């Protein structure tokens, strides 16, 4: 038998404050300042709401300056300004983040053999502990050990989930901001998402002026004359419907490329949703302004080209067990 390690009660030192009644000890405690801190943090949050709205306008204006410079100073028509802007954003902002994410995915796949090699050992260890201590579930102990191992390896090789999700998290705000810029240049103030954002932040979208005056200040009349050959006026819908179905085809190509990159990814719920969304974009966006669809097609096309280049330069290799036969084949007669 194991000797008892519990100490007798007489050996425990009794603190002097233990002899004081409970209500006196409670009265002697300092008053908490929780309510004051909450009030101050709430007041600070209310004070920062207008600053958030102003920062949204600043970022929108900063992304619009290069487009206006190319058009007004370099005299480049909007037919080329929009794809050049999409290319610049993809090369300057997206490509470094996409490259970092791709390398993190490569490291994540490279450590998968280490994780798979520990599975049988941890499962055997969990079974042995289950024989001696049945109160602890075998599978619970196994999952806890595997989760700790996976977390430790991903942290050591800098390929955690946050690293791999960095690109889609940062890509959406920039795309929405550029879409707001294009909408304002087309004479469509703000948009549903921007109006919803300002409403949530408690700000007026027009900042003291009516929407018609704001749209007139931001509208670019040259958008009506410097469009595509089949859609010269970018402020109205494409009469042929080519742009909406081009966006649909590019999104479908991106989804199919990701399915080929990830084996077994065709059955996931997200992949099926993206396929349905890609098919629905064409008929749903037929009446959208041609300028907005043109930027969307350029941005999606640049993303598709970037993914193809990364798949060629930094492929995602799957590490699988060796398929070498265990016995040598019989010699041919």
Automatic annotation (TrEMBL):
Mostly located where? membrane
Record flagged with keyword Transcription regulation: no
The record describes its membrane topology as: Multi-pass membrane protein
Q: Which GO terms describe its biological process?
A: mitochondrial respiratory chain complex IV assembly; protein insertion into mitochondrial inner membrane from matrix
What residue intervals traverse the membrane? 76-97, 269-286, 292-310
- Domain of life of the native organism: Eukaryota
GO cellular-component term (any): mitochondrial inner membrane
Q: Which residues form a coiled coil?
A: none
Q: Per its UniProt record, what InterPro entries does this chain match?
A: YidC/ALB3/OXA1/COX18
A GO MF annotation of the entry reads: membrane insertase activity
Its localization reads: Membrane
Enumerate the UniProt keywords alphabetically: Membrane, Transmembrane, Transmembrane helix
Keyword Transmembrane among record annotations = yes
Family the UniProt entry places it in: Belongs to the OXA1/ALB3/YidC family.
Q: What is the protein's given name?
A: Uncharacterized protein
UniProt lineage? Eukaryota, Fungi, Dikarya, Ascomycota, Pezizomycotina
């Amino acid at each position: 038998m194991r000797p008892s390690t519990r100490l007798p009660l007489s050996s425990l030192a009794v603190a002097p404050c233990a002899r004081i009644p409970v209500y006196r000890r409670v009265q002697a405690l300092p008053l908490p300042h929780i309510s004051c801190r909450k009030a101050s943090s709430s007041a600070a949050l209310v004070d920062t709401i207008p600053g958030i709205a102003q920062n949204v306008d600043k970022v929108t204006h900063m992304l619009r300056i290069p487009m206006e410079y190319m058009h007004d100073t370099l005299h480049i028509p909007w037919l080329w300004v929009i794809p050049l802007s999409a290319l610049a954003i993809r090369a300057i902002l997206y490509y470094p983040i996409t490259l970092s994410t791709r390398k993190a995915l490569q490291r994540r796949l490279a450590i998968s053999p280490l994780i798979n090699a520990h599975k049988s050992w941890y499962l055997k260890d969990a079974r042995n502990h289950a024989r001696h201590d049945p109160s602890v579930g075998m599978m619970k102990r196994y999952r806890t050990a595997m989760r700790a191992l996976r977390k430790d390896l991903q942290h050591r090789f800098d390929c955690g989930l946050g690293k791999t999700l960095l690109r889609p998290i940062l890509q959406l705000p920039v795309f929405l901001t550029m879409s707001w810029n294009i909408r304002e240049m087309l004479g469509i103030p703000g948009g549903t998402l921007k109006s919803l954002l300002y409403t949530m932040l408690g700000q007026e979208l027009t900042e003291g002026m009516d929407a018609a005056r704001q749209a007139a200040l931001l509208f670019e009349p040259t958008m009506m004359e410097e469009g595509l050959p089949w859609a010269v006026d970018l402020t109205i819908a494409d009469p042929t419907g080519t742009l909406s179905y081009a966006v649909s085809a590019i999104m479908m190509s991106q989804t199919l490329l990701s399915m080929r990159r990830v084996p077994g990814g065709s059955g996931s719920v997200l992949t099926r949703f993206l396929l349905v969304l890609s098919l629905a974009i064409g008929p749903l966006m037929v009446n959208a302004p041609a300028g907005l669809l043109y930027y969307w097609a350029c941005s999606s096309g640049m993303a598709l080209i970037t993914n193809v280049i990364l798949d060629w330069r930094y492929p995602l290799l799957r590490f699988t067990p060796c398929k070498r036969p265990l016995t040598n084949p019989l010699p041919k007669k």
